[in-house]
Records
---
Amino acid sequence: MELIIDGILKAFSLLFTLDREVLDITILSLKVSGIATIISVIIGVSVGTTIALNEFPGKRIIVSLVNTAMGLPPVVVGLFVTIFLWRNGPLGFLGILYTPYAIILAQSIIATPIVTGITVAAMQQLPKKLRLQILALGASRLQMVWMLLKESRLSLLAAVMAGFGGVISEIGASIMVGGNIKGYTRVLTTATVMETSKGNFDIAIALSIILLLLAYFINLILTFIQQREGTR
Amino acid sequence: MISNMPILEAQDLCVDRSGLRFLNVPILKVFQGEVLSLIGPNGAGKSTLLLALCHLFRNFSGHILFKGMEVGNDITPFEYRRQISMVFQEPLLFNATVFDNVASGLRFRRLDKNRCKKIVLNTLDRFGIAHLSSRSARALSGGEAQRVSLARAFAVEPQIIFLDEPFSSLDAPTKDALIEDLERNLRDLKITTIFATHDRNEALRLSDRVIVINQGEIVQDGTPEEVMNYPCNEFVASFVGVETVLSGIVVKNEAGVLTVSVSGFHMEAVGDITIGCKVVLCIRPEDIILYPASQDTQSSARNTFTGIVTRVVPSNFYQKVYLNCGFPLVSYITNASARSLGITEGMELKASFKATSVHIIET
């Protein structure tokens, strides 16, 4: 019991004194997962829209593959990204293994199917005739796609939340392709694991509180936007 | 204000679905400024025809000419669609304010902000929804939403407007008010309109010309009066509200006055058809007069029969009376007359109708 109370007290002192190392880890986590989310939104929304708006043979198979990939285990992604980036792997020439770029790459791969899957579902939820209505009002094909994206913006926000939530909290891929290098590739999750295994519960607790608060605040902001839009 | 040059012309329009010909329209001409109704039962192909005319789906064969230019050849479908607009059965509004909804077509055309605002406010006013301008489209009643949808389609000042059963999901009073506003706007703006509906009353009220569609084909094309009073076949007759459709054989032809035998009864009608021909007689229910069986025959009506009331169906202003005179007859009678006659099922009544009230179709 003393262990936990002590840990929580020390954790808060670390938080309130803005410990340099804890701050750096937090900022790196935000950067890496933020960039990975942006990349996955760009790819996922484009691919998802393309899948949803076009009829082609094998569409159902593609959609089911995307849906399966939404639950891609981060360790599996970590393993394959490591193999590809390994010194004599296919992408070894890039020399980015054990750098933040490798983590961004792995996290983008994890989040993209999540964003894609939700985008496909959101677009398919719109009434079929809406597309015809938009075209009948004189929209070009590009204007039509833009209108459809605007119409499904609430679901797309959910896609962003799900994507970000998925990557900020994952550890398998980050530790495998980043290597948890102090001051370079150490993010909140990898640092928490390491400090716990070293018995530094105070730091571990502080890190996990930050992780929770981050996830909470970002979702809070997005939820506010969503609710305001929804009731307007 | 109807000119001779068709603003829209469809040639050899065909749609096949799973190997069957779903729509087959060899020729359809729409003239500048006219209001054309397409009427027919659900599933007759009205919506499909409208979508094809708008070039909104690809799986059709044939040619569509807008002002003599072939769409897809002389002008692209996109350029063509910038000249028209369409309203669907569901309002299909965007999740935005009423103003933004009505402005959407103008924004697609990249109209500058001030002109856009002016047109939108003007159009909102035309449809009586100016007070809803800043309201969210999600917070509207069904009638208001359909008004916004109409305003959105009118705002782009289309050369042709297509309406696909825009009132069918509205309740009667809302529908009436909306039709009134639409009618006024159509007359004011003189926009060529193609209006699909399964409600013959809507068609009658709004249109200059009515086309009846059944099973993917045009079965009759004429003024509302022609289609209502002179249906070309039994299907059109029953669809436009002719309740009594009887088949018989011409037994006498005296200078244009025909005697037709229907289940052994003789009926007079006006026409010129050879003796021995099989015919169908159509009698509108409002043309059949009922009076007590004891009363003397009215002289002006050539056809008088005595029958038993088999069923009485009340409606808002009248009652629909089914008679069995050895053949079935259906008549409308006002509530007041029904009361004074004391109509009940099983009672005997006389029914009469003029020879000129019988529309005769050769089969």
---
Amino acid sequence: MSDLEHDRRTTTDPARGASLDQVLQMSASLMSAMNSVIEGKQSVVRTAITVLLAEGHLLLEDVPGTGKTLLAKTLGRCIDASVRRVQFTPDLLPSDITGVSVYNQDVRDFEFRPGAIFANVVVGDEINRASPKTQSALLESMEEVQVTVDGTTYGLPRPFIVMATQNPIEMEGTYPLPEAQRDRFMARISMGYPSARAELDMLDTHGGVSPLEGLQPVTDAATVQAMVEAVRRVHASPAVRQYIVDLAHATRSSSALRLGASPRATLHLLRAARAHAALAGRDHVLPDDVQQVAVPVVAHRLIPTGETQMARRTPADVLNDLLQRVRVPAPTR
Amino acid sequence: MTRSRLADVLLGVLATLLVTLPLADLFAPTGAWARPSLLLVALVALTGLGLRALTTVRPLVVAGQLLVLLEGTALLHGRGHLWAGVVPTTDTGAAFGVLLTDAYTSIVSYSAPVPAGRGAVLGISLLVGLTGLLVDAVAVTYRSPALAGIPLLTAFLSAATNTTAGLASWLVVPPALAWLALVGRQGVGALRSWGGTASAGDQRTTDPAGSFATVGRVVGVVALAAAVVVPGLVPHLPTTFVADGLARGNGGSGGGGAVRLSTSVDIARDLAQRSTDPVLVYRTSDPRPQPLRVGLLDTYEGGQWTASRDATFVPLDGRLPGSDAVPAVERTTERIEVSRSTVGLPQVALPENAVGTPFAPGSWQVTASGLVQLTRPTSQYTVEYVSLQPEPGQFAGSVDPSGPLADDLAVDAAAGSEVRALLDRITAPGDTPLETAVKIQDHLRGPGYTYSEDLVDETADGRRPEEPLVRFLETRTGYCVQFSSAMIMMARAAGIPARMAVGFLPGSLNGEERVITAEDAHAWPELYFPDLGWMRFEPTPGVRSGLAPAYAVAPAEDTGTETSSPEPTASATPTDPTRPEGDVTADNQPDVTVTPTTTATDVVRDHLGTVLGVLGVLLLAALTPLGAWLARRRARRDARDDARRVEAEWQSLLSRLGDIGLVPGDGATPRQASRQIGRAAYLSPDENAALTRVVDTLEQARYARPGAPLPDVADDAHTVWRAALGRRRRLDQARALLLPAEGRRHWTGLFRRSSPTSVEDDSEQRTPVG
């Protein structure tokens, strides 16, 4: 990623929302704040912020104890916005997420009690421990950014990001997310174990008090929303769009994959690439941006064939191969 | 059935036949030997086809072909010697032996073109048939077409080394093309059998043979072009014949010092000298240089010529004797300037009819017969001489048989009858002296006589005549001394005084100068005509003699009844236009009708083949770079805005870098491509910065919002290209400069656009990379 930073261009756009400069500045402070808590995970942090600016949702997948929840909580804490955390358990009900109408004796009418979803940052912990019914309630609201209870539709606050963590599906007592629902997450990242050095540092700093305690918000919901607006205006040229479509097609025709990227994946890829370009201070998307975000954005939607699994190749491996092969189109005449 | 492989067989037959093309220069008439040869080659090829379809045992196929070849030869040439009209017997073998011996004799004794007698036809067709068999066996039966080049080359070289003037260089092209096609077919076939190895997901279905075949074709064409052009540029030594080479094998005495022609013994020793030391170096103003005379021999006794013991004197006026011709004879005065002479005393090389006072008084004298002798060595001198151009009528007049020239009319008693018999056969009673002389000369220069420095002792019917002149007239084989002797005796028998002059042929041109070596020693007859004096004739065949003088060349209709003599017609047709100038020797002087002065136009015309070849190769070589330049120019011209210009610049840079092997990965973005190129091309930080500027501009052009002005990156792109090119091997550099892919695409693009079939052109998908 460092190579993308050599051309920080200070293009200010006086239109609505933040300028690219402000995006850059704000994301840098956000990143440094998060990095102070999450040791040695810069790229994960960067991806998380990319997803935030691209109005997507983040799926954090890894074995227990690698800091998934910490990452989600840190991001929530850094933004001065409403943050809700939902611990998913097998007995969690959909209404716990979306909210419920209760009869108010005083006004003699049903009154809507918003659920955990009504927040800017929703941390869904161990999402695959909840029953599919509950999961789907969350996922619907993720897509539409609204909740409908008893015929009434309630809009969710903006910015809105769901950060769900889950354990790998082999673990006991889990309900793995169906493909269709995984598709709704813009990106999936895996935390991975920290390096020995980072783990040692972690013991020093986390030994006494939780680092979250002292963390102050560096930005607020309105600023984040302005940044999102700025990201939307990042220019994606026809060549880049073509490239994204080519990539999606390549996953669909690849013999190593049973299921390729969905059209939603194409959309998410473009949005994520825009955010990635904005984080590099650029007002236009490069194919390099697309390549950088392709694996987190697309890999979790792909289903490998039996042969690929037998060959111990993950969808990410297949996708990396495709990135090597799919030609970056030159502008058409 | 693929074993029979018709196309390969046909190519093999074609190559075999093409390789025999140069034989047409060696054996005449061509039709006589070409038809049976063609028949045998076709027979062998057909047999091969049939047998290969029947059996896989290769030796069996070859053995069958050999049998058929032998049987075919027997049927063609051995009729009358076959058992039951079909089966060859020992009698056939014996008959073939006789024929082949006969062929061998004529091949070694004749210079090209050898008349294709029965023996020669048998020999040639058998050899051609064998070549065809070898080619077919190696290339098709044993599937090693590359090896088939060896029999082909052998056949070609044996023809090439034996032609008089060397082969026309283009003659190598047709057989080489046929052979290359043979090799190419086999190679492509072998590659195809590997099967396709296109990787999964890659839509391009690549024929593995395709790229190799392209490389192969280029290599083949370049090699062929080089084979044609390079020999034209490299000077080569004078060609000699097989027979000459055999005859002269024992010569080889080098050594400098003075050269003195023996005036009594024969000249063979001098002819056999392989020394290339110049005897005489001179310049001449004469467009048709004459031989230079050093001695005169007028007495013939027992097969030996000697000079009569003339009294010597010095003319009172101190001038050379000059010509005896009457004033009416048309004449020009020519001059030779001898810059170096190693002719020993008292001999001095002078042209006929020398005039003036070139030598200091007291250093020279003249014999009664008019021969100039020196008494003091002189290595440099300039002599003027009278060159006579008499009309035929001026040769008239007879000589008193009892006059002062009586000695020059004496016919040798031992050879008299044979000489007179021959004279009666070739001349008519009413002939003028000139007609008689010309008829004698033309008879001796005719195809019935063979020039050879190895004298033959036995006649065809086994007799061994003692008298050398009789022996020559019977065996019809000899060199200048024998030819001259025969002419002199016949002329004397016809009443024309004659004597023998000994000297040198005009030698070979070396720039402006002519150089005479010992090999140029020569003897020729001089005949006396009352109004003209002593006139030179040239009875020795053109293989190794000068031209006959203009007055001694009969008009065309009078020339003998047989096929034309090898000289001057053989040399009148310049068979090898690429022959270097220094190689022009006496035996291929331009004919009378051609102006012999060497002008710039002549040089160009003589080297036209080479010049055109070189030009053609240069043009071919320049074609691809030109295409690349055109493509770049068109791209720049067609670029409607900055973005397209930058894009064109980038594509051009990528294409050129691809030429030197720097190809970014398939899926590389411009930025990744630039990193890969920078690493692979070992760019310095400055050059890398230039590359980065190019890529940044390209990204702006491609991906940023359109409309912003973009800098010109042509200079930066050029910097990168030069830097990358400079760090490659010279071979790669040359290839990149001569065969840029841009240029190839330009031309193929033009070709495709002009052909209506290629509607769905995939170049749109392929060319833009990165």
